[in-house]
Amino acid sequence: MSDTTAGHQAEESLFAEHENIHPLKVRGTFRRLKWFFLVTMLSAYYIAPFLRWHRGEGNPDQFILIDILHRRFYFGPIEIWPQEVYYFTGILMVASLLLFLTTALAGRIWCGFWCPQTIWTDLFVMVERWVEGDRRKRLALDKAPWTFDKIWKRFLKHSVWMVIAWWTGGVFVLYFADAYELVSGLTGDVTTFLYQVFTLQIPTMPDHITAWVWIAIFAGTTYLMAGIAREQVCIYMCPWPRIQASLTDPEALNVTYRYDRGEPRGSIKKSKKLAAAGQPTGDCIDCNQCVWVCPTGTDIRKGMQLSCINCGLCIDACNNIMKKVGRPTGLIAFDTDLNIQRRLKGEKNRYKPVRPRTLIYMFGLLVTTGLMGWSLTHRTVTGINVLHDRNPLYVEEGDGALMNAYTVRMLNMENRTRHFTLEVSGPEGVKIKKISEGMYVFRKSPKGAFIVDVKPDTTRELRVLVVLPAKFKKPASAPLVFTATDVETGEKLTRSDFFKGPGE
Amino acid sequence: MENKEIDHISGTETTGHAWDGDLKELNTPLPKWWLSVLWVTIFWGIGYSIVYPHWFRGNEVIKGVFDWSSRGDVENALDAARARLAPQLAKLEKASLAEIKKDPDLSRFAVKAGEAVYGDNCVACHGTGANGVRPGSGYPNLTDSDWLYGGKLEDIVETIRVGIRSGHDEEKTNTMAAYGDDETLTPEQIKNVAGYVLSLSGETLPGADIKAGRQIYMEEAACNACHGDKGEGGATPGAPRLNDRIWLFGKDRIIDTITHGRRGVMPSWEKRGLTPAQIKAVAVYVYTRGGGQ
């Protein structure tokens, strides 16, 4: 590209050379907001696994626990079994709709304030600033030769990063195993585990190599994403900026450089000269502060861009400068391009948060949360599944009776032992002959129905033999309904199947 | 080479060769990192072939540093599985029927273990569903409540252990003589007695004299000595009940059965090498199919 010949247009490379971005320190409203979210969300992440929730004997006491081994997922009072995995679909739908809604209202504020990538990157940059100094010093250090000063600074920075990364992974595994129990069974007590994780030792968990492999994986990705890759993740790896383009519209608030006010830009001296000559001048003094504070290195004055994560730090920087030079703040602000056009035409600003788009998202949110809430409060915490024996479909007894065998699984998701009577109805004369679990045979109640007890939070697989005595008409196939009735509450559960025979 | 030059478009050096006078080639060697990966894999491969079995010497493979083999892996895994199952199998071996009934875990274990043993050893004759190959095939259906040698768990265990006409010292046996082949009865008489036997469960055989048949059943052939006066069976061990609707060798083959006799065989699974625990487990499985008494 260096030597373009006449008539041959320079080919512009699609490859952008990576340059380290060293955001400048800034103070202001949005910086304070970011610190607030950083502290609250990191605290939540680190404290949540240690919150307790008593669930009764035989159940874990951890508030949030994703127990993959026992296939139970606990969220406070809610307990999810694997067959209810659609609740996760619901949570994902709510999360995406919330994301859509915030995008429609104020663009990528998720990216700017709440995304883990943003939060950990912020934390890592804070460490970097603490060790190596602010932007100017860091830029200089990048170029500096490998002196002792550079070596120890780099060593310290990367060490602190790795420590933070290790803690991130160390806490992550506690969401998947009882924080206190897992640890106390293996190391004596939770304090030992925490002591080991927080003093950067590999926890002594000989039987739980998985745990520290996961710690290592999450430590590694945290270090890589928040320390090394940073804004590269937002610009090149993350699908969200691509998707977001189709979710936003001109009415959404975005961090906007108000070029109607700022242009033509120029230094204070230059603009004074222009003003003196009667030429139009803008408020932007071209100080580049907005670019230097940006965590992704964006020049917001070029308009809305894929790399902008809507964090508002450039607003803080610009406002500080405007105050210093005695011009009104808000040259960069959460605004829309539509408003700029309106102002250029001399019209009034307008912001319309209520639009068909936001209404649809809110409606979707209401429907999804409503459905989830309804199904959570109305879900059956008991279940009955029936599986007809496939081979043989039926057995003809010596006395001419017909027998069908079923595998019946009773589910009890409650925290108390439940007793059920199990009955069948179907072709005339059909009745249960025997209910057994292995060699154990269930007894009948005085009223003549079989009683089955199911322990708390378990399932029980039964073998049920159903007979049709010889004197009754034998069907080739007839519907058969199993009814389980809770002895204490009278709650009824039914499941349909078939009773098979040779036919007449 | 002395003819090297810098290509002005790409900025890359040429190799120095020229074909057809002016056709030159850019020198773009493989990246260093790529080459180093190649070298690493080569050295890795050499190390690997030393550590793990790789080279042949005559008919055998040199075993490598760790003496590792995939067969050894399988054997270790099997040993581990056996060791894991051993305590429960030992418990099952000692447990009585009442103890198995009381212990749901042991009971479940027995059914699952028994299912595996059944699948490996019994399906060939008794079928995957334990209901015989087909009705009347001569292989007993184990899901109904009709038992030749007893349907209690202890009886089932014993039958599986010693077998029928198996050559075991304690083998069980029954005798259905060949009344036609050894000329005890004429074909006419056989037809009559078959008609009588069918009449016990309400069936008819056209052309059979039931009265004459009863006479033969009770006196001349003395079928009742084993099958009972009313055909209730079990007067001697293994004598089938004749007044129900279950026909081990087929309802349409009764004349055949009386003429040629029957000599059903079941192997002794003790002789075939099943452990007492395995025998008990498969007995529990069979018992729970539907017919256990």
Protein model, in words:
The complex is a heterodimer of chains A (504) and B (293). Chain A has 504 residues and is of the alpha+beta class. Chain A is 42% helix and 18% strand. Chain A has helices spanning 29-47, 86-106, 109-114, 116-132, 135-143, 148-172, 179-187, 190-198, 209-229, 231-237, 240-245, 259-262, 268-276, 289-292, 313-325, 337-344, 356-378; strands at residues 64-67, 72-75, 78-80, 254-257, 332-335, 382-388, 395-396, 402-412, 418-425, 431-437, 440-441, 450-454, 458-468, 477-486, 492-500. The radius of gyration of chain A is 34 Å and the shape is elongated. Chain B is mainly α and 293 residues long. Chain B folds into three domains: 14-61, no CATH class; 72-171 and 266-288, Cytochrome Bc1 Complex, Chain D, domain 2; 187-260, Orthogonal Bundle (Cytochrome Bc1 Complex, Chain D, domain 2). Chain B has eleven helices and four strands, in the order E-E-H-E-E-H-H-H-H-H-H-H-H-H-H. Chain B has helices at 32-51, 70-94, 97-102, 104-121, 123-126, 153-162, 187-199, 210-220, 224-227, 254-260, 276-288, and strands spanning 14-19, 23-26, 56-57, 60-61. In chain B, the strands form two sheets. A two-stranded antiparallel sheet of chain B has the order 1-2. In chain B, strands 3-4 form a two-stranded antiparallel ribbon. The mean pLDDT of chain B is 89. Chain A binds chain B through residues 2-3, 389-392, 395-400, 403, 405, 436-441, 463, 465, and chain B through 8, 11, 97, 100-102, 104, 106-108, 110-111, 127-131, 135, 141, 143-146, 153, 241, 244-246, 284, 287-291.
Secondary structure topology:
The complex is a heterodimer of chains A (504) and B (293).
Chain A: H1 29-47, E1 64-67, E2 72-75, E3 78-80, H2 86-106, H3 109-114, H4 116-132, H5 135-143, H6 148-172, H7 179-187, H8 190-198, H9 209-229, H10 231-237, H11 240-245, E4 254-257, H12 259-262, H13 268-276, H14 289-292, H15 313-325, E5 332-335, H16 337-344, H17 356-378, E6 382-388, E7 395-396, E8 402-412, E9 418-425, E10 431-437, E11 440-441, E12 450-454, E13 458-468, E14 477-486, E15 492-500
Antiparallel strand pairs in A: 1-2, 2-3, 4-5, 6-8, 7-8, 8-13, 9-12, 9-14, 10-11, 10-13, 14-15
Helix pairs in contact in A: 1-4, 2-17, 4-6, 4-9, 6-9, 7-8
Chain B: E1 14-19, E2 23-26, H1 32-51, E3 56-57, E4 60-61, H2 70-94, H3 97-102, H4 104-121, H5 123-126, H6 153-162, H7 187-199, H8 210-220, H9 224-227, H10 254-260, H11 276-288
Antiparallel strand pairs in B: 1-2, 3-4
